[in-house]
Write a structure and sequence with these properties.
The structure is a homodimer of 194-residue chains.
Chain A: H1 2-12, H2 15-20, H3 24-56, E1 59-65, E2 70-74, H4 79-107, H5 112-145, H6 160-192
Helix pairs in contact in A: 3-4, 3-6, 4-5, 5-6
Keywords (chains A, B): Cell membrane, Cell wall biogenesis/degradation, Membrane, Transmembrane, Transmembrane helix
Family (chains A, B): Belongs to the Casparian strip membrane proteins (CASP) family.
Domain Casparian strip membrane protein (chains A, B): 31-179
């Protein structure tokens, strides 16, 4: 672990020279990326939580019913929406847990190990969030438009509130995806020089 | 600001020690990651092309028909499958175009700019491939199992060949996704030290 050494080293010996020559500029730049990382991470958490909460509270009962059946739509009628909820819950849980690491990266802009850890975990989170969002989007599209060749009818004529909520959740998920993409780009740029 | 000193310090004073001990090794190690990158990229290309080709050739006509209608299933009946085809075609196009960059990274293991370019473009390709795969997977799941609450019936009882081809395309897409995830991880590790 060379990273642990970098950090510990300067406090002991090299203070005198390095401060004068070139140190302040790259460190500032690094710190800037770490702060942007933290802010973007907050945005990603907010949108992931919004997506999960919106999906989780989406259900609607229609005001009429037959003898055998009341018409009701809820996210747990669709396995894809259940996957969406679980996936976004995982992503927001990971993002919350990653906040302390992001703070450490602000305090110690040159700790490479943390950046590397974050970029790897962010990539996994990106895959999860994207697949949850895209799968739900495919179903939402079907709910809005139906598909004539396979004879699947649009259900959004009846369940308007449900469809609106679900569409909102998908949009929030894609906002989260965009945030995580930028998180990865920033981490990659910050890893470049150290 | 004790942290600012880290970077400038080793380059100025600690050279003597570091060069002798560990210099030749990292170059080899870098080259190794670049070669793995190239091989993984070939795997990703193969699976992306397989996914696109399988989806593109998937259509099936049933041997019976009514007066008004012949039963036929093809990828272009479903907007999601069209998106899948276009998305995977883009991804495989990008991956083929990125091969020369990967070769340059083998020849010059310390060219940081190329690595950075590849990691950024790979992240975008990952998002595209994941969303295409997940959206198609959601529809394939529906085609296999149907959904009782929204009254969408499974169509795979009739269109068995079509469903098999489409499922195969989704699996190939996820193989491609896994390859790209590992590409990003390797690039991140290789960016760490230079």
């Amino acid at each position: 672990m060379p990273a642990t050494i970098d950090v510990a080293e300067p406090s002991s010996s090299a203070k005198g020279k390095a401060v004068i020559v070139a140190a302040p500029h790259p460190a500032k730049w690094k710190k800037g990326t770490a702060i942007i990382d933290f802010v973007l991470r907050l945005g990603a958490i907010a949108s992931a939580l919004a997506a999960a909460a919106t999906m989780g509270t989406s259900d609607e009962s229609l005001p009429f019913f037959t003898q055998f059946f009341q018409f009701e739509a809820s996210y747990d009628d669709m396995p894809t929406f259940q996957f969406f909820l679980i996936g976004m819950a995982f992503v927001s849980g990971y993002l919350v847990l990653s906040l302390p690491f992001s703070i450490v990266a602000i305090v110690r802009p040159h700790a490479v190990g943390i950046r590397l850890f974050l970029i790897i975990m962010d990539t996994v989170a990106l895959t999860l969030a994207t697949s949850a969002g895209a799968a739900a989007a495919a179903i939402v599209y079907l709910a809005h438009n139906g598909n004539s060749s396979s004879n699947w009818l649009a259900i959004c004529n009846q369940f308007t509130d449900f469809c609106q909520k679900v569409s909102g959740a998908v949009v929030a998920a894609f906002v989260c995806v965009v945030c995580i993409v930028f998180l990865i780009l920033i981490s990659a740029v910050a890893l470049r020089r150290h």
